[in-house]
What does this fold into?
Amino acid sequence: MLYTEENVRDNLRNRDGKRVFFLGREDKLTSAARDFLTRERIPILPAEQAKIETYRLLNGAYLSEKPEQMTHLNGDILVLKTHPRISFRGAMDTLEAELLLCQLVVDKKTAAAVEEILNYARLMIRCDVLNEPLPSQKLCGLTPEQLRSHSHRPQEYYGQPHFMPQVTDGEEILRLNRCRCAARQAELQAVRAFLDEDGNPTRPDLLQGLNRLSSMLYILMIQCKKDR
It folds into this structure.
């Protein structure tokens, strides 16, 4: 297989708290992919080393085999599949599925915005799995402050007031609304997963990112409603 930079980004792994990339004997890297790994100081390891011989548990214990009721938190660390961070990732998987279906029914301009939201959602999952901070960036051209302002005052920015979706709004708006609901559910799971015992957020970047994501989906609903 020839790995592009995008393929490499999607297949980074966490080993002992560091990002690594496993490359098979017959696999190759594009120049851009190799430059990315060099620039980010990510070691390239033989694919044979990807197999984990022992697994760690959060209580410090070790297992030689992975039980069916457990899954990877990151690297060689196993947790129960009911762990809050695993529930969060499951909610993000559902959000991704809704965003992909949404792209089938919206117009080309909206589909491009949904694609950007999808990529942002996938970035959040990668940042969780690899324990990386979520990069600060605009979403569909809007800063966090602009997203908040636009979603709270749509009449001022788009000439379209807040509305409750109706069946007569059509498939585009209803699909966007499903995505927005899925984003809200993912946000709720994130709050459960990323709060410490005192109620302080351990990943405020991911919590803010999900809030931005659902706000952008609502803005897309507003724009579609205005154009109907």
User: Anything to note?
Assistant: The first strand starts at residue 2 and ends at 3.
